[in-house]
Amino acid sequence: MRFLITNDDGYLAPGLTALARAASALGEVQVVAPDREQSATSHSLTMHHPLRVRQVRPGMVTLDGTPTDCVALALGALMPEPPDLVLSGVNHGANLGDDVLYSGTVAAAMEAVILGIPAIAVSHVGREPEGIEAWTPLLTRLLDQILGHNGLPRPTLLNVNLPAGGPDVVQGIRVTTLGRRTYEGSVTRDTDPNGREYYWIGGGESRWWGSDDSDFRAIHSDYISVTPLRLDLTDYELLKEIERWQLQA
After folding, report:
1. pTM recorded for the entire structure
2. Which of 26, 94, 121, 174 could form a disulfide with 88 if both were Cys (CB 3.0 to 4.6 A apart)?
3. Burial code of 43-79, b = ≥16 C-beta within 10 A, e = fewer?
4. Tell me, what's the pLDDT at 219?
C-alpha cells in the first residue's frame, strides 16, 4: 500500500507528522506538503510563477505552493508510481459543513480524486496541535478498517473530523452528512498605527444547523465524523425545476 500525505498547515505541522506515522504502519509513505501555512486556500493552483521543490529528508518533499499544487506535482511529476490512497491532514482545526468549500485540506483530497486516486481528508476540532500526536494509533486502526473493504473505489472522498480532546473522549464513529454554518461579525474594520484603514477576515460568531446526522452534531457528541463527499455539485432537484421553465435563446 502506497500513501501520499499532504496538508495545508505546512510540512512542520504536528498533524502531518501524526498522519504520516499512522499511515506508515500500513504501508509506504511519501509526504509532499507546503513549505508554509496554506489554510483556507481552497482549490487554488499556482499558475503564474514556477514552483520550487525541496527535499527535507527521504520520504518528505516540500514546495512553495498550495495543497492542491502538492497533489498535482506529486502525482504528475514527483512520484514514480501513483499512490493507492491520498491522505490530507491532520488539519489543525475543524473542517465541518461549509468549511469544505474553503479548506485547503479538503481541496487537496479533492484534487486527488479528480486525478483518479481515492482520498481522505482528516481534521482535528481541538485547538492544541501538540495533542494530535496522541491520535496516531486510533488513526492507524481507522485507516486499516476503511482499507479493509477490498480497496476503495476510485471516486471515494471521505472527510473525517476528530472531536476536541484526545482519543479517550471518543464515543464511537458516525457516518454523517454536511451541516451548515453562517458567520456573523467575521469582518473586522480598523486602522493601522499609521492611520490607514484595513479589513481583516476571520473569527466572529458561527451558527450551525442541520439534520440529526450532521457532522457537527456528531463532533459535539464526541463522535468521530466520517462524511462521504462527491465532486458533482449539480442540484438535481433544481435542474428539474429549471427544465420546466423552458428557457429560450
Report:
1. 0.93
2. 121
3. beebeeeeeebeeeeeebbbbebbbbbbbbbbbeebe
4. 96
Whether residue 182 is predicted with pLDDT greater than 80 in this model: the reply is no
pLDDT per position as a tens digit, 86-136: 999 999 999 999 999 999 999 999 999 999 999 999 999 987 888 899 999
Average pLDDT (231-240) is 94
